[in-house]
Fold each of these.
Amino acid sequence: MARDTRERIVTTARDLVHAATYADVGVDDVCRAAGVNKGSLYHFFPSKQALGLAVLDRNWELMRGLLDEAFDAEAPPLDRLDAFLTAYASMMRTMREHLGATPGCPLGNLAAELSAHEPDMRARIAEVLTAWTDRVASVVRDAQARGDVDPSFDATEAARGVVALVQGYGVLAKADDDPTALDALRPLVRRLLPAPH
Amino acid sequence: MARDTRERIVTTARDLVHAATYADVGVDDVCRAAGVNKGSLYHFFPSKQALGLAVLDRNWELMRGLLDEAFDAEAPPLDRLDAFLTAYASMMRTMREHLGATPGCPLGNLAAELSAHEPDMRARIAEVLTAWTDRVASVVRDAQARGDVDPSFDATEAARGVVALVQGYGVLAKADDDPTALDALRPLVRRLLPAPH
């Protein structure tokens, strides 16, 4: 029951933040939309920042789900990376249908908005982006070991490039309100990870 | 005199937005920091949105200044692109010194935050990003004409990749509060624009 309430608060906050921004969403809005009273919300989240961190963690959990599904598959490394990019684009289309507008990268948005705030937020965002980069770097290393990608590249640098490109395209898709913008990602990511000469 | 006041309001609003987010900055904060009264601010900007658009236009003007300086130089096209990326990284370092924290891409931040809002804002942001992409695409076309970049690539798609990468690295630099993250951009952009086979 308590878990259900906490879950409903996080899910509601997440939807409201995606439909607008973190700053736009007040604790009162979350209470109203989730149908809980303020005491109940503050029981689980003593501050708006605590709720913001829970939304960030939830977004990372969902992104990790996409990464797990794509990266744990039995397929050549670059195909696994393609599968992640396809799943990411498909998530953006689903969110657009649900929210009525293209929300942009769920993690990139929070990074752009919340890094400006409390040091705790920025540190947690940096951690999440590093964890995302590490997942991609491990696929890049697999691809290098198979001879599919130039082994002279630093895998972490290349992975940061991939994560940056995904976030940048999230911004472009949001500005154009067009999730199909993300379809350009796959060939560009391949170009960041060229085969050995 | 009126121009001075308008200018002071826009510059102040811009600094406040960069140090936090658009949503965090109220008209009252701008009045206080700029030393103007509310009537004066509303004389120039009838709404916060109008002021937000002026901040966006100012950021684009400054970015266009960087692009003009780098792109109008007498140098091979890819060197001009490098010069822009160097100037962009240097701007980020200067802003970090001025604001005490790495602000991220001045245009990318507004795109991530404001596209979620009024359609006027989103449309203007999309226009600005298209104008930025067009500038880069023209350099890519010059590089292709000289035989420096594979002519089979669509120059506009490649330029969108470059702009996305710059914005994504803006987010990473902000999350890490480290403007030197942008130094990785030049080699990655080159990899997005490979020489013909």
Amino acid sequence: DAVNIEKVLEEIHDDDQLSHSRLMQTAAGVREVGRQLQRRPIKRAVRNVMIVTKARDNTLITLTRELTEWLLSTPRYGRPTGVNVYVDAKLKQSKRFDMPSLLAQNQNYHSMLRFWTPELCWSSPDKFDLVITLGGDGTVLYTSWLFQRVVPPILSFSLGSLGFLTNFQFEQYKTHLDRIMGDSGMRINLRMRFTCTIYRSAASTLSSSTSTTSLMTEPANERVAVGMVEGEQHEVLNELVIDRGPSSYISSLDLYANESLLTRINADGLILSTPTGSTAYSLSAGGSLVHPDIPAILLTPICPHTLSFRPMLLNDSVMLKVKIPEKGRGSAFVSFDGKGRVELGRGDAVVVQASQYPFPTVLSQPLEWFDSISRTLRWNTRTAEQKDW
Amino acid sequence: DAVNIEKVLEEIHDDDQLSHSRLMQTAAGVREVGRQLQRRPIKRAVRNVMIVTKARDNTLITLTRELTEWLLSTPRYGRPTGVNVYVDAKLKQSKRFDMPSLLAQNQNYHSMLRFWTPELCWSSPDKFDLVITLGGDGTVLYTSWLFQRVVPPILSFSLGSLGFLTNFQFEQYKTHLDRIMGDSGMRINLRMRFTCTIYRSAASTLSSSTSTTSLMTEPANERVAVGMVEGEQHEVLNELVIDRGPSSYISSLDLYANESLLTRINADGLILSTPTGSTAYSLSAGGSLVHPDIPAILLTPICPHTLSFRPMLLNDSVMLKVKIPEKGRGSAFVSFDGKGRVELGRGDAVVVQASQYPFPTVLSQPLEWFDSISRTLRWNTRTAEQKDW
Amino acid sequence: DAVNIEKVLEEIHDDDQLSHSRLMQTAAGVREVGRQLQRRPIKRAVRNVMIVTKARDNTLITLTRELTEWLLSTPRYGRPTGVNVYVDAKLKQSKRFDMPSLLAQNQNYHSMLRFWTPELCWSSPDKFDLVITLGGDGTVLYTSWLFQRVVPPILSFSLGSLGFLTNFQFEQYKTHLDRIMGDSGMRINLRMRFTCTIYRSAASTLSSSTSTTSLMTEPANERVAVGMVEGEQHEVLNELVIDRGPSSYISSLDLYANESLLTRINADGLILSTPTGSTAYSLSAGGSLVHPDIPAILLTPICPHTLSFRPMLLNDSVMLKVKIPEKGRGSAFVSFDGKGRVELGRGDAVVVQASQYPFPTVLSQPLEWFDSISRTLRWNTRTAEQKDW
Amino acid sequence: DAVNIEKVLEEIHDDDQLSHSRLMQTAAGVREVGRQLQRRPIKRAVRNVMIVTKARDNTLITLTRELTEWLLSTPRYGRPTGVNVYVDAKLKQSKRFDMPSLLAQNQNYHSMLRFWTPELCWSSPDKFDLVITLGGDGTVLYTSWLFQRVVPPILSFSLGSLGFLTNFQFEQYKTHLDRIMGDSGMRINLRMRFTCTIYRSAASTLSSSTSTTSLMTEPANERVAVGMVEGEQHEVLNELVIDRGPSSYISSLDLYANESLLTRINADGLILSTPTGSTAYSLSAGGSLVHPDIPAILLTPICPHTLSFRPMLLNDSVMLKVKIPEKGRGSAFVSFDGKGRVELGRGDAVVVQASQYPFPTVLSQPLEWFDSISRTLRWNTRTAEQKDW
């Protein structure tokens, strides 16, 4: 069977006499494998497409109908019809989407037109070969929230100007989809997500059950430390923010890496951002712009009280914990990709780790990220392009 | 043979039907291999030790003599004597080092005490199993300059307060070296370096030959583009800086990624820094602090004229080129780890890539980097450490 | 009568043929008058001293008792006893302050020991020739809150390390007070305050009456614009902060100078700081350090969404208004020197102007501000002082 | 005689019993006088106009000719002809300016058309009632350089987009000039300049005589300190910059306020900027935007090595001195408004003070500065203006 990573790991482990030069060569090799993987297109047939959009936006429903019809009807992979399409179950009753008139077009559509629910995304993400989003960056973040575990490839169309996450113009959707579903296949950018877990101190007066944002809160059955109870868990694509909420007291936050206390942070708050989130809130707070291929955790303080506390990037193998001091003046609030404000009391903590479930987005072009930066930050940009090299 | 990366690469290449889930699994596996490698200690016998220090500093020469004597005389690996020691050839004549009295101690020392020259470092880096530096961060940068290709493991002692690169206290040198040369072995941090290459425009009036800093200037025999001639090449551990030099005109610099023009930068200059260099000049210019395990290139502008031009981190697989515009107002100056000021004229360029020759430093402890940050930036630090988790 | 500013103003007004050179000379003259005023010490007898401290802190009450006794008993201005002392009315019942034992010492103390209340500060600030604060910067801010109109000279003692506003060591209180109440007199730093006024939109659902922080809320009887009702008013010494409060939506704030809309600000919030406040919250948000003699309003955005929106300093003659857009997504919160969180609804506004009631602090030494900066920001400071010039 | 500032100063001085309330009232009054002065228009007849432009730019010479002709011919102040016009003496021979054809138009022009030289500006600045500049901000800086002492009112036309200093569109020059030279008069913004003086250590090997930039170097006849010799003097409108020049060593600079050492600065350099210069180099180095009415000196470090060394604003009554340490590693370079690079050796110093000769610019509209900021920094600007207040 193709690439046997298990075996590679075993081999490293057994090599008790690993020499310096062997270490250097292997490390270089591993890095090269990573690069090759990034460049490899996926060419498998796309037989099941899911469409995500704002179910309340009339314009978007009309476009969803148009796209659905085109996907169902355009012959692919040697068959007379197109591919299966999953749309939001809320559209079943939508007059604007008008399911009856669509099904009337072709008998096969009765089996090909399907409906997704958050539960289906949670239980069977492998049902979808491709997810298309219509809307803005918010719709992409919602899609990340829908897939708390494995995520299918995501292709994001923008209706107006392109955003940081919406890199395909909807106007050319036929061209883009024909290419991606055809021989060219799609190149994937595996964007890091964070797995964020709340831990309640046994002494905490704040119950996890108050939060209603999380679709699939993990059962609080595992104890990671004496007196700590595991609470809800969220995957984030952009960032986790911890701030003082409505309190006018400064937040004191204890930051741990792995199991060691690094420092106590006095600030308005703290942003733990992925590279994808580096163009969002972290940028406003003074963080650097970070290419999404870089495996790093951005730690960006909000209005820190120590001038030397600068934005930092930590390696993605570290497990970070932010804890409210037992003897502090109060609580803090955590939000996930801008949603789900959860209160943390004294002794409570949130643990952040690179997720084992990255968010795979379809690349529009090799320098996609630079283009999005140039465009959005209004660089004196790539207009004067001269390919002289 | 242990880990066959070639084979892995081949397998990826052959897998024409690479599916999305296979890609995700392989990527996760490759990342895990990388992490395991970082944690593996090297336990091979250290039979040849090189010592680098400032040959003009009397205190350091005395300590070098002390360390040399201890290394030569302390029995190791089942033999009655110690290990071979290479010291700077300049010390041969040093009265303070006093080679004759050292050789008089033991007949074997005549063969065990050896001398290194820059040429030897260049031609035979594999002769050294370990390089010890005595001094400050400057001595470590000098060591990086000595080894322009493969670099042996580097262990850096500090004489006073610890620095960013000098993480071992010289006072405990016996304890540290006994542990590292014994059963514990040494854990290595493979720090990224950059390979920087000057390209001269055919029209350039500035000759490469004026620079005398580089030990091993590459012959200028390869043409990468019509009208461009490859000039000298340097490895840097901290950063490459391009600035306007004594000119009071603003620098205009064209920045390319791979072969595409990204933007024209108007600024006092530009810093291309490794993660190791993120605590040096880049920090003064507003860059973030970056953990040395992160494979990234920091692009930090110096006094940019566009407020939206913020510090950025690019992935290490990108090839960056900074070019002086053909029709600009003038020249710029390039320096490598703070040395070797080279002038670039109109049309000249410098190309920067992650080096295939990283700089391996011996880790003093798992959270070494956080400690160096806390210490040097005077965080309200890890004194209140409570291991409650 | 000494300096007749009215007459000067009249003269300027009448001079219809004001020439350029006359304008230049007059402007230079006015500036010089300002400088001379800053250097003039006040030498009037200090007959009534008010002491402000935290009435709940036991240590401070003990020291207040000690200071009171010393002020009452030390003969001054040719009289056998000392000066009148006003202490917090709350101390009347304090066992630790022990008024009975104090009054027992001298019959005169019955008339010399007096008690202040917030109401007295409000109605008769001219009763006090000097106000002494014991405590930290918070106690000084509290004193500013007590005197919403004219403020007597303030001398602030620090018990531990000196702060930005507490520039006298309590340990040497006798020396300091003997000097200031003697022939040397006191030099005064007139620190700018802001007068902040809330204006409610007629459509606003938020009533002013909910706030209980303000001691002397102005009657809401004046209409400054159609549909706007004047609400409460506060004097601030450090800053006014407008933020989004517990909402996770970005704040949209419309900023007006005089009567013109300057820009719509998208940010987490906005700080309007005095020069005195430049070392407080504004500094954390990226503002500059500003000497308290400079007549300027600092406008420092908190996490602005536009990279070009940088910290600004406006001249103190401008009237600034920050208004919640009529059609925005929500409300904002205003706080005054870190207190008195007031909610602003759609269409509501807060107006900020340089106050006609500055906050006069006694100078400890000519370069007091530089010293406080050096000390608090841990500059590599003035230890190496060489007066070679 | 109108406003007798001398008398006011005397009165303050004589008032030995200056009370606190009198001090407060006088200070408020002085500030009010300052504000009234800013609002007073100058309405004296403009009988002599000087035009400054780049004498080498053909387009500008053509426009200068057009403007000259219009000024000479348009009847003003009850006379059949216009006003006297001074143009650059270099234009006498210019074919494009074509003086002969101009003089041929009217016999009076022989006396009305005059020529200025740098020497005339130096010796008789009072000859000009108004100076018009045609060009960019560079031309305005050149005009500041021409008038090292008293400066006439400056009106700056822009040919293309408006700049920070060029606030009048040339296209409407007739409208603007008719208004200003008519009953409306002109409102003046007195922009602070700095007087910068070089002091040479007696031990310095660097002679002042090498600099040829200064038009009117002061004779080096005054000794301000033992071993210090006063050298050349410059007025700057934007900023003075001290940097390390071509050296790659960090600059160590000792900063003094009045006669006290404040701190030793380790940085790439230091910018001492006026409020006018706050939108120029200081902004690139992280300084705040400062309204030109604010009497402040901006101290903005360039890439400081201490993270706590932040941009500062000092009051304009302070005398700043930057000195090269006697025992430092080397020299530094000083430039004035981007020109006149002068080297400072060990022990040499530059002294900066608010000049007694401000730079008076004609205001285009009350919120001119905000407009220039909005325009140049591309704020989400004043388009949505609603005057609802």
